[in-house]
Amino acid sequence: MTRDEARLLFMEMTETYSLRRHARTVELVMEALAIHFNEDPEIFAMTGLLHDADYEKHPDVHPQVIVKKLEALGENEMAHAIAGHYTKWNVARNSLLDKCIVAADEITGFIVAVALIRPTKIVGIKVKSVMKKFKTSTFAAKVDREECIKGAALLGWTIQELIAFIIPVLEKNKEELDLI
Question: What's 108's domain CATH number?
Fold first, then answer.
């Protein structure tokens, strides 16, 4: 699968701006993680893009629909990572790809939520600011804080180190992501 094919599949399955932006942010973070760990940026990016592709139309069986589509295309590595992108689903995280999608998903969405309430959005955001909101359980209450911490730990990082890694990725792409 090429990135263009992945993007086409994603756009066919996803309609809302918010989910499209979330997928794009995770795509960018996954690409950056691949580069950091000397892995394949294309596979990582496509996994980030497609991880929630079926969530909007098939929330009750998410991520089974996108996983089956990827398996049918022979994209088993991406399918497995997406099948286990939430630790409570009890899918083994065998590869760095499997671990990175868990690390990237929830916390990236949380950082975007923090940025959206700031006058300068992502520009100049500090880890300390994100952590202050992270400790406020009523802010972005649907974000599973435990999942964010587990994701960072899968990479051998603290949550603060993961946040510090993600912020510049989002800031670099602030115009595209409407984070200015």
Answer: 1.10.3210
